[in-house]
Amino acid sequence: MNVYCKAMVEFDPARLINRIAVAQDRTAFAELFQHYAPRVKAMMMRRGASADRAEDLAQETLLRLWRKAAQFEPGRASGSAWVYAIARNVSVDMGRRDVRAAAWLNEQGLPEEEDYDEPEQHLLIAERENIVRSTLAKLPEEQLRVIRLSFFDGLAHSEIAELLGIPLGTVKSRIRLALQRLRDPLGDLR
């Protein structure tokens, strides 16, 4: 049997996922990553994502696999089917997050198109960034944590609740309060 056929016979995603779930086996994760990252990226590009976006989606998919490996049930789906289901969910979640972020920006009255070559615009952008950074630094730790998980890590509210072991309503309240704290100082710069 040639090396390629032998490698295909030995690759068992369900076994690798189980090793991650039981022992947080980094070698198993690396093997899954090497196998699935390019495939998920290609899938996302076929669905219309840019190469950079597709790569981000592939990485997020495998990161989520790492975090949720214990939830894999071999009797319900094959390892491959589970990976691609995660990829689809990641794509949907990130799409929803992008829509929420765009809606929030529109709600704030921020212009959709600005001439960034103008010195005043550079100053305004820098001022906004400073305000957001300083306001984030002042947030209570529990609010900052949910903001990071939601907006920077792209987790759904239910995933944050599960990860932190807190009720879903608490996650939503913390995000709402944090966003209000961010909105208030930005009000003068609209």
Give descriptors for this structure.
190 residues; mainly alpha; 0% strand
Describe the largest sheet: none
Tell me the total number of β-strands: 0
Shape: globular
Counted by DSSP, the helix tally is 9
Helix content: over 70%
Helix-strand makeup class: mainly alpha
Please explain how this structure is put together.
This protein has 190 residues and is mainly α. The protein has helices at residues 3-10, 13-23, 26-46, 51-68, 79-107, 119-138, 141-152, 157-164, 168-186. Helix 2 crosses helix 3, helix 7 (141-152) packs across helix 9 (168-186) and helix 8 packs across helix 9 (168-186). The mean pLDDT is 81.
What's the arrangement of secondary structure elements?
Blueprint: H1 3-10, H2 13-23, H3 26-46, H4 51-68, H5 79-107, H6 119-138, H7 141-152, H8 157-164, H9 168-186
Helix pairs in contact: 2-3, 3-4, 4-5, 6-9, 7-9, 8-9
Quick structural summary:
77% of the residues lie in helices and 0% in strands. The protein has 9 helices and no strands.
